[in-house]
Amino acid sequence: MEFEVVIGLEVHAQLNTKTKIFCSCPTSFGDEPNTNVCEVCLGLPGALPVLNKEAVKKAIALGTAINATINRKSIFNRKNYFYPDLPKGYQISQFEIPIVEAGEIYIDFEDGTKKRIGVTRAHLEEDAGKNIHHGNVSHVDLNRAGTPLLEIVSEPDMRSSEEAVLYLKKLHAILRYLDISDANMQEGSFRCDANVSIRPKGDTKLYTRAEIKNLNSFKFIQKAIDYEVERQSTAWEDGVYEQEVVQETRLFDIDKNETRSMRSKEDSAEYRYFPDPDLLPVMIPEDMLAQCIQIPELPDEKRDRFVTEYGIKAYDANVITASVETARFFETMIEHGASPKNSVTWLSVELQGRLGNGVTLMTSPVDAATLALLVKRIEDATISGKAAKEVLDYLMQNRVGVDEAIATLGLRQMSDEGALVAIIDAIIAANGDKVAEYKAGKEKLFAFFVGQAMKESKGTANPSKVNELLKARLH
Hints:
Layout: E1 3-14, H1 53-65, E2 69-70, E3 73-74, E4 77-80, E5 90-93, E6 100-108, E7 114-126, E8 130-134, E9 137-141, E10 148-154, H2 161-178, E11 190-200, E12 210-215, H3 218-237, H4 241-244, E13 248-253, E14 258-264, E15 274-275, E16 282-283, H5 286-292, H6 299-310, H7 314-321, H8 324-335, H9 340-353, H10 368-379, H11 385-397, H12 402-409, H13 417-430, H14 432-439, H15 446-456, H16 463-474
Parallel strand pairs: 12-13
Antiparallel strand pairs: 1-10, 1-11, 2-6, 3-16, 4-5, 4-15, 6-7, 7-10, 8-9, 11-12, 13-14
Helix pairs in contact: 2-3, 6-7, 8-9, 8-10, 10-11, 11-12, 13-15, 13-16, 15-16
């Protein structure tokens, strides 16, 4: 039987406010456990929450970016459940009226086609703390408790793990372009729950879904969804679907590459939602809304502008604008005089290929101005493209300027016509037989003469100049 996959995603994005959503405790990452806490985020009796206005502003910015409805009035609720890292015994979240609803995100495929993914809602809530397990002992760090979150819930519009990852990458980029979240997956500030179900091809019914919890890597998200689809498909074909596939929360084991049951999935009624009596409804004034909907250029807009303004290919523009850091790096190269076409290659292929092992574009020893100058040295024929790769390798290891690196490595391209003519004349004189064969019609020998000239110049001869002079001397 052929199945259709149905995927909906819930993304939890920590907002990059300086303080927590309902108190003035800092949101800094990596501090000593249980130091960024107070009466409010510890849930002590009598402590009253006060809403962080910046969190509201950032939620409005996202809603604007995804063409959503911004509700001028929204409500905070208490979501009641017990976890050891949630000291109040309930989470303050939004249920009936979220601040953002009915949005959309378009994902882009390599063949140039697009697909619309609906966004049901994005609501504000507080994050829980963190459980740390050491063997049979568990510790609770409440520094994260109360950090502002946006929970962004998609429609079940994705039909493959590939589409899910494309959606997540686009949403990740939007958050970074808006500068409302650092969206650091390793630190848990961008994590995802995937709701996965299957149905016979052509069926429109939604069947039982399994929720895969707390995925924080694009690679693991894809693997977890693929495993879950295979598990559910096998259960259906084996006639045990109703026994094996139940509404539950599952975890992805990255070592075994499989999902496993964690707990039964609660329905909203089990959370006993009710309006938080300590928080008034959120009323967004007109002037605040007008201010917050002024957002920066987003990935799709920047991609289209790069294609139009710089004449680069749509695929290259997609690669460059996939992250705000890469887009800014590229634009800085252009500002420093490098051509758009060569900037694309030397950024997306050469420099990116030398990053890794903890070195990112932001921490690279070669910044945008330096790479732009290297590109300009290729374009003004100071060095060849091949030599430039050696220079880039050297720059990644040594804190020196481009011109100093070229001089140290002795890679400055020979363009002096007199020096090149002397080399070419010597090669012609030493290879009379090949000259005769070439003049008799064996034109492939031209590459031999070029090779000999490059060899004699130790690779520093300007190739186009060599070709020009050789053609003149051999005819």
